[in-house]
Amino acid sequence: xxxxxxxxxxxxxxxxxxxxxxxxxxxxxxxxxxxxxxxxxxxxxxxxxxxxxxxxxxxxxxxxxxxxxxxxxxxxxxxxxxxxxxxxxxxxxxxxxxxxxxxxxxxxxxxxxxxxxxxxxxxxxxxxxxxxxxxxxxxxxxxxxxx
Length: 147
Fold this sequence. Notes:
This protein is α+β, with helices and mostly antiparallel strands. The protein has helices spanning 2-21, 24-42, 46-49, 71-81, 85-88; strands spanning 60-63, 66-69, 90-102, 105-115, 122-132, 135-144.
């Protein structure tokens, strides 16, 4: 009996925290970060694209069998891999879903696609956003492609 009361109370607390975190302002702010990233990418500005990530040594990017640690290392990876406008192509995101974990954390899933001359790479992403002093920022990015 006591256990069921504790579980019920814990569920209520978590549910109310989730509702607070799902406030339209949080979701709007996260979506604005993603929109700013797409705009920066599509004008060839990797540094502005990276403004969506937390400037931290703890920031992580996972792709394939590789984990890249640290904002600067992630930035350098993007700059090296996409060193020309032709390689960058035009980025778009779709099927974006924002799911609050707490008042200062959210998981975001979606699809990414690059349109480039000669190919159209695509895949999925899972992002963990944290609310920081600079606003909502990506602290963990797991991006995959079907290839």
